[in-house]
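Researcher: Here's the sequence for the chain we discussed earlier.
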Amino acid sequence: MATGRSPQARDEELRELGVVLHEPPTPPIRKTVVVDGRKCRVFLSESERRRHIAACKLEVEENCLSGAREACVLRAMDACRPPAWQRWLPFLSRGPSSSPQEVEACEARAMEGCLAGAQQGCTGHAASLCAASHPERMWLE
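Model: Thanks. This is the structure I predict for it:
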């Protein structure tokens, strides 16, 4: 089934429509060099290494805080709400029930404290992980 168009014209038309059939390969971020008779991979420049470490820290910290936020929500709910059976069957409860406003305020305080601790932990985790995963030299042998 010949259409009479060249492949370049077809690719250009697809590109105009937003369809990309082939992404060009990204250049490697490290090059192989020989140091003291051993092969190792090094970054193209120190500024390139610092850029990758900064991007790594940002991504790891965002992911860590996202997970911590989810865990803090669950902890705040557990700490501030009565047990499920008591919420479902209030006539069986023995103590005074909390108003929704009190529960919301308690959960907000619990979340604030939990996220403050998580922020410090995530920052430290990102710094140690990214520094270790982007060494100056990555030995191959």
